[in-house]
Amino acid sequence: MIAFAVTAAPAGELSLWHLVIQASWVVKLVMFGLAAASVWCWAIIIEKFFAVRKMNAANDRFEQYFWSGQSLEDLFASMGNRNNIGLAAIFMAAMREWKRSQDAALRAGFQGVQRRIEKVMDVQIQKEMHDLESRLLFLATTGSAAPFVGLFGTVWGIMVSFQAIANSQNTSLNVVAPGIAEALFATAIGLVAAIPATIFYNMYSADAGKIGARLENFADEFSAIISRQLDERV
Fold this sequence. Notes:
Number of helices: 7
């Protein structure tokens, strides 16, 4: 049988910290777990904010270079020493495969060259999207599970409070209020963790979808350019 003493908080001490300190160990575990999840969610949110901005800026710069009119060979040489991401990384992967395939293609024909280049671009797109979408699942999990974890802490805290009230046979507000407040505080922490996690998960998922579509469109355009060049050499 659950038996925890609920003591009345001294006047003026019904603060958030007092609620945490006076909570049962189960409610404390729920509170600290949700607080840790919230901190980690905000770390992911900030990291993804800069990652999305960096990816979009890099893609904008590369498209300016790519459609500026310079040859593919010159662009490949100028970008060889950079830490490329996004469209630039797809372009570099395709050009490296193109250069590796040229000698074999001249000897055995161009069959299969474009297919290999397209496969390389698809693999690079998956790598870029994996990096961009990593840890978003934690936001989704926190957004869906945190309210229920907080509710569990609330139910447990209220159950303990009522058990203590029954044992003390004292139903005054000074006895009831602290236990109920600390129980409800667990749900509040769960909502604090879940709301931003859900909002930013949806936002970054939409951003990742737009970036993924942009990468796919470029891969299709570059595949068409490679196809034209291969046709010219046949």
